[in-house]
Each structure stands twice: as C-alpha cells, then as structure tokens.
Design brief:
Largest sheet: none
Strand content: under 5%
Number of strands: 0
Number of helices: 15
Structural class: mainly alpha
Helix content: over 70%
Order of helices and strands: HHHHHHHHHHHHHHH
Radius of gyration: 20 Å
C-alpha cells in the first residue's frame, strides 16, 4: 500500500514544491506559494479517492491506503513551509522541521511496536504524527508569510509544475516499480528481502536531495555565471565524493552484518541485493548535482527526458532480470538506470555549455 501511494504522489511532494522554489527564488511575493497550497489540497483529495478505490479493486488494504494517502497530503503541506524557509535562507528552521517530523515518526513507530495494531495502526499513528508536526510548522511560518491557500492562478501553477511532475513520476517509478514487480513476479518474501536492503540505501539517497533543497535556490539566482556554477560543481561533487567514500564501503563491505543488525538474521539473505545497490549512492550524488545545474538553467524538460529514459530502462531490465535472478536482478537494473541517469545528466550539462568537470575535487571536498 505504501509503495502504491508513493507511486501516485510525486505531484504533491515534488513537482509543486519545485515550481514554488523556482518562483520564490526569482522574486515572487508568495502568491505562487498560496496557489500551490490550493492545488495541493484539491489534487490531494482526488488522489486519496482514486487510490482508495483502486485499493478496493486490487485487494490492497483499503483503510491503510486511505490513511497513507491523507498522510501524503499532510507531508506535502508541511513541505511547502519548508520550501519557503529554504528560499528565504532559513535553512536551520527547515532542518529543524525535518528533524521534528522524523522524530514524530519514530515516536509513531514506537507506539505501534508497544501497542500493536498492524498496518492500519502504523498508518494512523504516522498520520497523527505528521499532522501534529505540520501544525507546528504552520504556526511558526504564519507569523512571517501569508499561507492561506487559494484556487487562483491554478493554470499557471500546473504549467510551471508539469515538467517537474513528469520527472518526479519517472523518478518514483524506478524507485518503487522494482518492489511492485518483485512482489508480482517473485513473491512477497523476495520483495520483502529486497525492500529491507533498498531501505538502507534510501536513507542515503535523501542526502543529495537535501543539497538540492538548500542550494538550488542559490543556483537559480547564479545561473549564467560560469565561475559561480563551477564553484558550486566543485562543492557538491566534492562533498558527494567525501560522503560516498564513507558510505559505500560500509554498505557493500558490511552488507551482511548491517542487515542482521537492523532487521535480524532472517534478512541476511538480502546481502546480494545490497552488494548491487550500495554503489548507486555515489552515482546518485553526481547525477543529482548535474541534474540540478540543468534545472537551474531553466532546462528542466531535458532533465525530465533523461529521467524518463532511465525509468524505461529500469522497468525493461526488471522484466528480463527479475524472473532469472529475483532481488539481485532488480538491484542490478537499478544500478544500470542510475548509471544512465548520471551519464545523461552530465551529457545534457555539456551540451548546454555548463561546467562539467571541476578543476580538482579536493578543494570541493574540503
């Protein structure tokens, strides 16, 4: 149910925030933000109805799907506040908000662990935690901004958001399609083992996204200044290299120990999956760096095209590799799509005349 909800919510959690970030970075007085909040409310309601109906038809847990859909909308509304803070260079507040929500989700998980109740209880506690954290965010942000949703200028909002939406759908497809395809083609046990390994990697996939949230507004403002673009490339590639130098050897070298430590001995069989997925962390850092340069240059459509091709490659390889190798085959498909995403993003940056290779990675790393 969570994978299905994730497939259908990139509009709420990605595209509208990306369009809002661009508008605010370029001097919008907040009107776009209010229109985006209005768009999130009505699209979120439609998504919840559609997903709940689809769950009933497909035999998924209907109540849990409905609650998770409501949670996705609550997360999206809180994300608008964080976008506002990031554009206004209040990164500490945005980071604190992320930490508060993460802590609230841990408390929700602890409640399920102690009280029981199954998947519906897990979804309900998460929704409660998300709403509580979101109300805190809105209360803080309301003092310095008008956050009253409006249905005005909806056409402008979706016109600016659609390239980000298509890119977001492509991204989510090759993040979630492998789990769904494994479930259908290889069974729940194989999908569960794969998900255990993939979740460890997803923790580190969030790091490049955090750099995007913090630096992309600045990159919008500095677009066209090749010196500053080159320095940003050095910074982000250098930091990515430094972090991957610590993360990847641990994920790959200690894969069995990590799985046993986090999930228990029953999941140690997922070690071959983590062997393939571990290296994607470095690829993700570099691909997101070049992709953000393309986005800041107002060529999101080209970035989206690369993402669509990568998603299609991932699904095609999954169809071939999952029947033969199961989880490790799906992981190999993900590694291949991440490599294509990096090569394609760097290729687009080169065609646009953007900085492609830093003079030296060491200064950026420092």
């Amino acid at each position: 149910a969570l994978a299905v909800v994730a497939l259908c919510t990139p509009l709420l959690q990605g595209a509208l925030d990306s369009a809002t970030r661009r508008a605010l970075s370029r001097g919008d007085d907040g009107g776009f933000l209010r229109s985006a909040l209005g768009a999130k409310l009505w699209t979120g309601a439609i998504v919840a109805i559609v997903l709940t109906s689809a769950a009933a038809v497909c035999g998924l847990p209907v109540a849990a799907t409905a609650v998770l859909s409501a949670n996705a909308l609550a997360v999206a509304l809180g994300g608008s506040v964080q976008t506002l803070w990031l554009v206004r260079n209040r990164q500490a507040l945005a980071a604190l908000a992320e930490g508060v929500r993460a802590f609230a989700w841990v408390v929700a998980a602890l409640a399920v662990w102690l009280l029981g109740g199954g998947s519906l209880a897990a979804a309900s506690w998460r929704l409660l935690a998300t709403v509580a954290a979101g109300l805190v965010f809105l209360g803080i942000a309301r003092r310095g901004a008008n956050l009253r949703p409006t249905l005005a200028a909806q056409r402008d909002v979706f016109r600016d958001a659609w390239p980000f939406l298509l890119g977001g759908i492509s991204f989510v497809l090759y993040q979630q399609a492998d789990r769904l395809m494994l479930f259908v083609m290889a069974g729940g046990a194989e999908a569960g083992a794969y998900a255990a390994a993939a979740n460890l990697v997803m923790v580190f996939y969030m790091l490049p996204g955090l750099f995007t949230a913090v630096y992309l507004p600045r990159m919008y403002r500095e677009a066209g200044n090749r010196v500053r673009e080159g320095r940003m490339l050095e910074l982000r590639l250098g930091v990515g290299l430094l972090m991957a130098a610590f993360i990847v050897p641990v994920l790959i070298g200690l894969r069995g120990e990590l799985l046993r430590l986090v999930y228990g001995a029953d999941f140690a069989a997922a070690a071959p999956v983590l062997l393939w997925l571990g290296g994607t962390v470095l690829l993700r850092f570099a691909a997101v760096t070049y992709g953000d340069m393309v986005t800041a240059a107002d060529r999101q459509g080209l970035r989206t095209a690369v993402q669509v091709v990568a998603a299609m490659l991932n699904i095609g390889l999954n169809l071939v590799l999952i029947p033969r190798w199961g989880g490790p085959g799906a992981a190999a498909a993900t590694l291949a799509s991440e490599a294509l995403l990096l090569v394609g993003s760097a290729g687009v940056a080169w065609r646009l005349g953007l900085p492609l290779r830093p003079r030296l990675l060491v200064p950026g790393t420092l």
